[in-house]
Every structure is written in C-alpha cells, then in structure tokens.
C-alpha cells in the first residue's frame, strides 16, 4: 500500500453520537449506510434508546445538483463523440479535433458556471446562495486547470505562441478589469477617476497594450504637461514586438527585435524620462520586467500565475515549454514571499507547469469533490496518447479506473444511470463486469423502464442479465395475476422452467373455471410454443378446443389422442383429456377409428392401473372415488361402444 | 432544418405535446407541455417558444424555449395529452390520471381533476390492490380514454368522478398506446404485436377486430391515425419497424418499413400535411418520412443522413393501386414508384429520443439526455 496522500476528511452525522455508541456501516456503490449500534464504547450492549435512523451518506453530492446535471448530460455527448475520433481522424486534423473537443468541454463548464452564477444571484436564502457560489468557484477552478492543461498538453504550444496562449489564459480568468474599464471610461473625467491608474496598470500587466495606450491618451488630453511623457510611453507600448499568428518572422528575429525594444525601455528609465510622473515610471519598470515593480502590484496581479505570465511577457517572451517550471517555481516563491504556504490549486498548476500529468490528476482527485473533472480530463489526455505507459498497481490503467469511479457514481443516482452505460462501455477491462453488476440493480417500476434496461443488456449480449430482468418482470406479473404478461416475459427470456410454471397456472385456472383466459395470447403463440413441453401442451390443448368449437371433430380427436400418446400432456391431466373425449365418442358418426380407440383404452388402463390402492378411505375420499369410478366406467362403456361401431364401420368399408 | 434549438433541462423527458391552436386561428404553435420520468420528483411543465422579439430577463437566447410554469407530478409521466386549450391530461406510472389546469394570468398549473386508481392489479386471491402504470391516454373532448399495464381500458368524462366505462382484462398483455379511430371506436396496441379495435357501443370485453403482426409477436409501442383517412394507421414496434395498416381490410399490415435500430417510441402523422410522418426511437434518432408524391425527381434526392426505406412486405391490397388518387400515399405498395424520402433530424445520436410532436411548421422532441429540441422551420 502506498501512504495516504492527504488526511481523510471527517464527516459528522447529525444525531449519531460516535463517542458514546459504536457505529456500523455498509458500503454501497456511491454511498454508505451508517447507523448506531446498541453497543457502547466498551463493547457492552445496553438498552439505552439510540438514534433510530439509518443514514445514507453520499460521497459525491455534486451529482445531485440540478445544474451540474446539465454538465453531466452535455459532456456525455462530447465524451461519446471523442471516443469515435480514434477511427475518424489521423495526424494534424486529429490534434485540431482534440483541441476542439477540449474547448467544447470548457465551454460546457463555462455555461454551467454562468447559470450557477445567475442562480446564486437569484437565491434568496444565504445558505443556498453560499452553496451555489462555492460551486461556482469550484467550476471556475476546474476551467482554469483544464485550460492550462489544454495549452500545455493538448495544443503543445512551442516557444513563442506558448506565451500568447498563457496570456489569453490569464486574461480569461482575471476578468475584473472589464468592469473597472467600463467604470473608468464611462465616468465624466476618466483621468481624474480614482481607478484610472489602476486600470492602466492592470491593462499593462495583462499585456493589453493597445487598450492601455488608449486609456493613457485620456491622461495626455487632460493633463498637457504630461502629454510628452505619455506619448513616449505610448510609443514604447506600440513598438513592443510581439508574435502575431500571420507573421512569418522567425523566433530569432523576434528575440533580436525584442532585445532592442527592451534596451530602449531601459534607456528611458535611466535617462529619467518619466522621473516627474511616478505612475508612468512604475509602468515603465513593469514593462522592463522589473520583479520588484511587478511585486509592488501584487494586489492587482491577484495570484502568482498572473505574476508568472506578466513576468515572462516582459522578461522572456519566447520562453520554452521546458523552462516553464523553473519560472513558475520562482514566481510562486517570490509571490508568496514565505508568508503563506501553497494551496491545492497552486500545487496542481505547478504540477502542470512541470508537465507532470499524473501529479495534476492525482492532486485534482484529492482536491475536487467529484470525479467528473478527472475522469473526462484523463480520458482526453489519454486520447492525446500521453498516459499509455502508466499502470496502476490495482485494477486497470488510470483512465479506466477514473471512468469506472465516475460511472459508478452516475449509477448510484436514481436517474443518471443511462449516462453511466456509455462510460462503462469505454472501459475495456472492467467496464463490462461493472455494468453487469450495476444494471441488475436498477429498480424497475414500469415496463417501459425495464425495456430500456433490457435494450442496454441485449445490445451488449448480456444474456444472463436479460434472463434475470425478464424473470423479475415475469414474477411480478404472476404476483399481479397477469398470466399473459408473465408468459410473454418468460418467452422473451427463453425461460423454459418459468414458462412451464405459468402454463400450469393457465391449466389449473382452466380446470377450475372451465374456460381459458388470455386467449389472444395463447392463440398466437406461434413458434414460441416450443419453448417448453407444458407450453406446447397448453397451445395444442387450446387448439383442440378451437377445432372442437369449429366442429372439426376428426382433427380434434386425433390431436387429443396424440397429446396423450406423445407424452406431451402431463399424466395428471389425462383424465381431463379422456373426459374431453367423451362427447366425441358419443357423436352420431364414428370419429375415433378402432385403432385410435385401442390407444384410448390403453391410456385409460395405464391411468387406472397405475393408481395405488388407498389404505384408509375416509368419507369424503370415498365420495371422490365414487365419482372417479363412475367416470371411468362411463368412459369404458363409451369406448367399448365406439370400438364396436368402429369395427363394424371399418369392416363394412373394407368389405365394399 | 437550419435552426434546431436544444436546451438541457435537468430531467429526462418522457413526453412533449404542442398546445393545440384554436380552430380557425392563424396563430402558430408557441406553447408546449413536457413530462419527465425516472426522477425522484417528476414534473409536468409548460414551455413557450414565443416572445422572441424581446430577449428575456434571464438572458436566454433568442429562439430559445423558456419555462412558463411547472407542477410536481407523482410518478413517471407516461403519457400526456392536451384536453383543450387550458387543460392537460397526464398518465402516471402510479396508475393515476390527472387533469392539470393552466392559469395563463399568473402562469401556474393546478390539479383540476384526478382519478387516482384508474389502473391497478389485483393480486392472486387477495383483495388488496397494487397500482399499475397507466401507459397511454387519448382525449376527444369530453372523453378521455386510458390504457395500462393491467390490460384495462377506462373511459372517463371530464365532468364525471367515476369512469363511464371500464373494460377489465381487455388485454392479456400490456397495452402500450391508444388512439381514437372514429368515435366511439378506439384502437389499442399491445406488447404481443396486436392492434385491437374496440367499439364502446358494444357491451362485453371483446374487441370488435384484432389485427396482428405475424410471426414473432414483436411488441408495438406507439400508434397514430392518419388525420384525414381514418382507416390508415401507423404503428411502431420494438424492433424499430414502422408498420402501416389499413384497418378496413385484412388483419396484417399493408407495409412494414425497416426503420430504427431499437424501440420506436412515437410515430406521428403531420396533422395538416399527412404525407409527412415523424418517428423517434430508443436508438437516439428522430426521422422525418416524406411520402409526398408531387416531387418527380425525388427518388434521386437524398438528404444528408437520410436513407431510403426498404419495403419488406407488400401487404395484400394491390387492388388499391387502382384508386391511387383516392388512397393515401402511405398505402401504395409499389416501391419503385413511391420512394419515401427519410431525413434524420438530430445532428448526432445521443440517448433515446422518447417523444416528439409536430404542429404546423414546429417540431419538439425530448430525450433521455435531458434535452428538449425545438425547430420552427420544419419544411424550409
């Protein structure tokens, strides 16, 4: 076993006093059952009333949020699409597709965040408002991490473009500047606004130099003495060499030009061009990448990764991916300045800058409350072929492990189980086994739901589960006295034993009531009739009744006889069959031939001779026996008379 | 099909229905109802696609549908029908049938009438009863007919507390759907591949006619009647096949069309343009079938994602071709002459599309992926 990666969190269960009483628990797929036992701490049972409840403790509460359900459903579609990418795309277009998929995931997170934010504003009680806003911050952290992973691992941006992407990343996540900008520029006299210099600084820190220049021009207009200085600084901003996507210049050229620009900035500072205006001088220092000047704006940078990107922008804009972790570490150290220790988010981002994917995923798994994020990110990175070598010491690989966890969580939810199916499908090693175990445990309250579950099983040739589900439904139908339904379900499951059981019920009902129920089904059994002998008998026996009803006596008679001679009819039913033969024997014309009559006689003798003599006949049994004996005698008489008539008729036919 | 709006709603949608527009009005469809299933708490909701001139306060996009109101519904919503402009009838998996009333003034829904034990099982030998899901409901003001897993058919009237007529054990298997044929005749489909026609004028619990698929007894899940030709009926089965029936003749379908790969949950003729038919399925697809014969070069035209149909069996009424002009294009059985053009309406396959409804140029469908799709330009 590896050591623990973090302290396990303690959850208090309200109403349960674990100090006084021992607790017991049982694991469920995504939940835990907890209750108090009647034992105290010393292990003695005592009759003190204890907490009367059993608690269900859910690990992953996010699954139960209405808004996050949209995230799960929408990302499920993206996930399923991603699994098809393998066969559809190769080479360059493949990478473009993967980036597109990553952006889709992020836009779903953002949409969710947006909606959650709206709900937070609309929430009228503070408790739920707090809950929503904590969800918003979790989602925004997820998006932040995902975006960085997208830049570093999926786009794999080279030196140059890398910094541009990082700048976009920072701009996307530090977005207070837009409200500030609207605030300042919307005021009557922007340059006198208290947030004016803050705005210019923030824009410079984010590398939005064109905007910074425009804002600065307001100061130049309003304050002619400083117009010259503003123009010089504005020119520096304008001339800063940057890599533009359409430009064909090489990295070396860019570096050379940037070096010149950097020296020019330095010269202005040395010459004291901005000496009379502290804010402008400070801006110039920022543009020189001066660490102390940057750190002076700590509050505007708000976090170390912003500091990192700004610092790189003004000191090493063509940073190579490989050097990133060095700058990241030193930026983190400088920014925190030993005052506070790094938080989980810092560690995750740092691991990303170090290109340590496994560490990123591990830290995320510990820090985030649900598996959605790590499962989807890992799957995407796996599609980028970044995780192949890594195997866990348990189960399958990491991707599969995380997907299984996530899918199990979905199955624990009363309604999201359908999404889980596709995730299990994408786990080659343990997915099927997990699905088999989960799918059988879905409560089936309507046939429609059962049909959906059955479809899932049938598509995956899970015959055992199909049988078990059909059997559950058949049992339910029997309990509800719906024999027709029960028979349909056992036919669907090809469950011969159960079909026999249901057929017996039909026959019993017939014996009791003298008529068949559910004729629409029995008359239309078709080939399904061959499922079990008893079912065949039921179908054929009903056919006999139909033939008899249609006065097709000869066919009816031979069918009746064959039911007995072929041993399809259960022994216990022979007497009923023979009794059914009685009216046929009594018809005016001869129906049973001599040979058939012999057969019937043999059947009757078989039946009567096989009966054991009863030891102590009581009154009721005597009466029953009496009825039986009369019946047998009547049959014998009818058979004998029929035999005589048949012989005479056959003799005369043969003679003519 | 340029504009297809999707909205995720955090519950699996089992039914969607357009509110009927008042007869004779020039209004287009703008309100629809949905019902959810398999949720801890299910809802019947009303949505609007109107008011796109002024963007909503909650920032939803133009053309997006927005929630007007909803109400809790006990159990899964198994079926949903508009009774009239204000009233919606919902069938529940608890065997309960409820009429909800919409108050347009303050945008709320309330329960106006309820038959709590419309469908139930009777256990063997015990008087205790156990509820059975009500699977289908159909309305023809003032009558409401419901069918259920208990094989029972109920006839209700909106103004009567008790069922006007009940046929116990009407079917030995589960009844999946019901539709009016010609008043007072109804047509039901069941889980052993049979269509049964019932006439409420007749006493007793025997159907007046039974039609069935031969052979494998494939369960039928949905049924719709041609809006103008009342003898033409379409059904969808468990194997995804579309069957067209002529209830006047024969006991077998006129044609069987290979369609979806899994259960077909709903089939609808377009109410005012019945040469068009719409189907949706468990396999996550939604199809538009176009059998209009006025496009001569149609056989060479296939939309993206479309496919031609394969006629598997050509029923029994070849003589009907003589009256081509009179019969519906759905009954013609000459595959070379009348190709049906099929278009897939959803961009990518997802989880089951449980329900759809069409009215005028508008189509709405609901899925297990908890999304509602709406388009307002069906024929553009």
Automatic annotation (TrEMBL), chain A:
GO terms assigned for molecular function: structural constituent of nuclear pore
Keyword Nucleus among record annotations: yes
Primary site of residence: nucleus
Record key words, sorted: Membrane, mRNA transport, Nuclear pore complex, Nucleus, Protein transport, Translocation, Transport
GO cellular component: nuclear membrane; nuclear pore outer ring
InterPro entries named in the record: Nucleoporin_Nup85
Location of this chain's protein in the cell: Nucleus, Nuclear pore complex
GO BP, one annotated term: mRNA export from nucleus
Subunit details: Component of the nuclear pore complex (NPC).
Biological function: Functions as a component of the nuclear pore complex (NPC).
Family to which the UniProt record says this protein belongs: Belongs to the nucleoporin Nup85 family.
Name by which UniProt lists this protein: Nuclear pore complex protein Nup85
Species in which this protein is naturally found: Oryctolagus cuniculus (Rabbit)
Lineage: Eukaryota, Metazoa, Chordata, Craniata, Vertebrata
Gene name in the database record: NUP85
From TrEMBL, chain B:
InterPro entries per the UniProt record, alphabetical: WD40/YVTN_repeat-like_dom_sf, WD40_repeat_CS, WD40_repeat_dom_sf, WD40_rpt
Pfam families: WD40
Chief location bin: nucleus
Compartments where located: Nucleus
Keyword Nucleus tagged: yes
Gene3D superfamilies: YVTN repeat-like/Quinoprotein amine dehydrogenase
Record SUPFAM superfamilies: WD40 repeat-like (SSF50978)
WD repeat feature ranges: 213-255, 257-299
Keywords: Nucleus, Repeat, WD repeat
PROSITE patterns hit by this protein: WD_REPEATS_1, WD_REPEATS_2
GO cellular component: a single term: kinetochore
UniProt entry tagged with the keyword Repeat: yes
UniProt protein name: Nucleoporin 43
